[in-house]
Amino acid sequence: MAEHPDCALVRRGYEAFSNGDMDTLSSLFTADVAHHVPGDHILSGHHKGREAVLQLYRRIAEETNGTFRVELQHLLADGRGHVISVHRIYADRKDRGVEMPGGIFFTIVGGKVSDLDECAEDLDVLNEFWR
């Protein structure tokens, strides 16, 4: 069975993120893309615009000294411009580490990602990690 084009797009994004390939990531986003990060910590909030989203990803790498990694586990498409990813994150920061399931609800418009709504298994643990 062939992968749905929206899932293929999101998979390319995960691969680019994992490789630190900001040029490819940039090409997959609309100019007004928004990434919504849940919680109450240094990265939480609404990151709006392609450059703001890319800066969020750079900051994740900086804050974790390059230890942040994400392991994509599943992609689910609805055929109407939405994809849900399920992944596991791993990272070390200061004197603590995190390993946790999470996911992102993607909205795709015109073959590009326009919105990312991030979800985490345990927001309290995530808040503590990023504080």
What does this structure look like?
This protein is 34% helix and 44% strand. The protein has 131 residues and is an alpha+beta fold. A six-stranded mixed β-sheet has the order 2-1-6-5-4-3. The longest helix has 15 residues, at 5-19. It is globular, with a radius of gyration of 14 Å. The termini are far apart.
Topology of this structure?
Layout: H1 5-19, H2 22-28, E1 29-37, E2 45-48, H3 50-63, E3 69-77, E4 82-93, E5 96-109, E6 112-120, H4 123-130
Parallel strand pairs: 1-6
Antiparallel strand pairs: 1-2, 3-4, 4-5, 5-6
Helix pairs in contact: 1-2
Estimate the helix proportion, in percent. 25-40%
Sheet with the most strands, sense and barrel status: 6 strands, mixed
C-alpha termini separation: 43 Å
What is the number of helices?
Answer: 4
**Poorly predicted spans:** none
In sequence order, what are the helices and strands, one letter per element? HHEEHEEEEH
- The secondary-structure class comes to alpha+beta
Q: Per the principal axes of the C-alpha atoms, what is the gross shape?
A: globular
User: What radius of gyration results from the CA coordinates?
Assistant: 14 Å
**Mean pLDDT over the full residue set:** 97
The spatial strand order of the largest sheet comes to 2-1-6-5-4-3
Please count the beta strands (DSSP E, at least 2 residues each).
Answer: 6
Percentage of residues in DSSP E strands: 35-45%
